[in-house]
Specification:
By secondary structure, the protein is α+β, with helices and mostly antiparallel strands.
Length: 250
């Protein structure tokens, strides 16, 4: 099996055929047009979080913040109630390290220092403001996505009402590979016959940026005028073709 992250980085032929207009220039425009700076909204709910001087395990800090926010929603506990030493924090920490082992993170160990833990909890606190900002009614972390062909079932990051979000706790802008990974999830879910998400987006709790866009519009724009159903069918057909080479990295 291969992961959705690897597929989003690979297969030049697939992505050029299905989304020929998803170019670096369009991705740059995407960042300019669809990104909202949440720090500019009134109320002072958001503050950018710089990487601390002693923070080295960036992947684990990001994943721990996600897992803390997830447990907060699923167990009905405020973020500030999941502190160091609590059983909920220990569960979030165990879930984080298990996730990074699954995806072979480049982080070289799983022991966080005090500054890294503090930064993870600070980032986690941004989720509460985000859910309030988008007036979230139904929140589901890690929604399960059915697989196809050599891509097994996987989990996306976050579903909020009719929108599927990917969480990117990074200092950079959204890249083409991020958009392709989100499209993979949408295509796989669409192929079940029961469409769940009309919109998609990204949330960066470190940079306090929020993207939300129409899935149909993005597919039309990046495919050169084709329908969402056509594009998604081509992606799923590609994944289901077991005779295809899967090591063409670009």
């Amino acid at each position: 099996m291969i992961s959705e992250k690897e597929i989003a980085k690979q297969f030049n032929g697939l992505w050029n055929d299905t989304l020929p207009l998803l170019t670096p220039q369009l991705v740059g425009l995407f960042n300019a047009v669809h990104s909202d700076d949440l720090t500019e909204f009134p109320g002072g709910k958001f503050k950018r979080i710089a990487i601390g001087a002693n923070v080295e395990k960036h992947d684990l800090v990001a994943e721990l913040s996600f897992q803390v926010a997830k447990l907060s929603v699923e167990r009905g506990i405020p973020i500030h109630g999941i502190g160091l030493g609590t059983e909920d924090f220990k569960d979030a920490y165990r879930n984080s390290t298990a996730f990074l082992r699954k995806y072979a993170s480049e982080d070289s160990g799983f022991l966080l220092n005090a500054e890294e833990i503090s930064e993870a909890l600070t980032i986690a606190s941004q989720y509460e403001g985000f859910f309030s900002h988008v007036s979230a009614k139904t929140i589901e972390f890690s929604p399960r996505i059915s697989g196809a062909g050599y891509l097994g079932s996987c989990c996306a990051d976050l579903s909020v009402d009719d929108t599927l979000y990917e969480i990117k706790t990074v200092s950079r802008n959204i890249a083409g590979k991020d958009i392709r990974q989100l499209i993979l999830y949408l295509a796989l879910q669409y192929s079940t016959g029961k469409r769940r998400w009309l919109y998609a987006g990204f949330f960066n709790p470190r940079k306090c940026t929020h993207y939300r866009f129409s899935v149909d519009h993005l597919m039309y724009r990046t495919s050169g005028g084709r329908s969402t159903s056509e594009v998604f069918a081509d992606i799923v057909d590609f994944l289901s073709n077991r005779g295809i080479e899967i090591d063409s990295i670009f």
